[in-house]
Write a structure and sequence with these properties.
InterPro entries: ABC-2_transporter_component (IPR051449), ABC2_TM (IPR013525), ABC2_TM_bact-type (IPR047817), ABC_2_transport (IPR000412). The protein has 245 residues and is mostly helical. The chain contains eleven helices and no strands. Helix 1 packs across helix 6 (92-121), helix 3 packs antiparallel against helix 4 (46-78) and helix 6 runs antiparallel to helix 11. The protein is globular.
Length: 245
């Protein structure tokens, strides 16, 4: 790992984002719009929004970050930019870590906006500390980014990259406990849900809704989310190809 090369990649990605307002709007505005729609879908039933709002505060940023980063990295490869970069003394992990830092900064802003909107404007009632809710939201965004960078190595076109969204995220969405409590699932499905990182994101948000302090299980959930993100980055560096065949 070379810090200078990693930071140079981070600056380049941020400069690209600065000149792409539509992508920035998708990353920062879309999760806020979706949460606002969710709030007014249950207008008059604040209990329902308080129950599922924290969970979707983690799910929406994860899905958006996954989609944007998978397409962005694939575009680097199909345009030939990635091949030119890797002819220089730039390692694959340096490249992915630079992307991770750039989109990590975006995830911080994304989580700050979504959390402030949900708690301050939409009136979400959270028993746990708001800073921990923010930390989980940031972790979920970073996890989505890492998964997006990983699956981009297996797509040949941007359309294929988008197709990974239902293939990778929808099973996690169905088994994470958002629709059916994980304890009520069949043993096989419960075992599968224990292997999926989104289950721990939703579990952390659930605990923040019901407990008033920093629960050790929430810390464990955050550790699993972080470990899954690092694992995805490592696998992404190992499978990254210079060009699309």
């Amino acid at each position: 790992m070379n810090v200078h090369r990693t930071l140079a990649t981070t600056r380049r990605v941020l400069a690209q984002l600065r000149h792409d307002p539509r992508t920035v709007a998708m990353l920062l505005v879309v999760p806020c719009v979706l949460l606002t729609l969710l709030k007014y879908m249950f207008d008059g039933d604040s209990g329902t929004f308080d129950r599922i709002g924290p969970e979707l505060l983690g799910v929406f940023p994860l899905m958006v970050m996954f989609l944007v980063t998978s397409v962005a990295m694939l575009r680097e490869r199909t345009s030939g930019t990635l091949e030119r970069l890797l002819t220089m003394p730039l390692g694959k992990f340096d490249l992915l870590l630079g992307y991770a830092l750039a989109f990590g900064l975006v995830a911080l802003v994304q989580a700050a906006l979504a959390s402030a909107l949900t708690i301050g404007v939409l009136g979400l009632d959270v028993a746990g500390p708001t800073w921990l809710l923010f930390a989980v939201a940031v972790g979920d965004g970073l996890l989505g980014m890492a998964l997006g960078l990983l699956v981009s190595a297996f797509a040949a076109t941007e359309f294929q990259a988008v197709q990974f969204l239902p293939a990778v995220l929808l099973p996690q969405l169905l088994l994470c406990g958002l629709f059916v409590p994980r304890e009520a699932m069949a043993p096989l499905l419960r075992g599968l849900s224990d292997l999926l990182p989104l289950s721990y994101a939703v579990d952390a948000m659930n605990r923040l809704t019901t407990t008033g302090g920093v629960d050790g299980r929430v810390v464990l959930d955050l550790a699993v989310i972080a470990a899954a993100g690092l694992l995805a980055l490592g696998l992404g560096a190992a499978t990254l190809r210079r060009r699309t065949a």
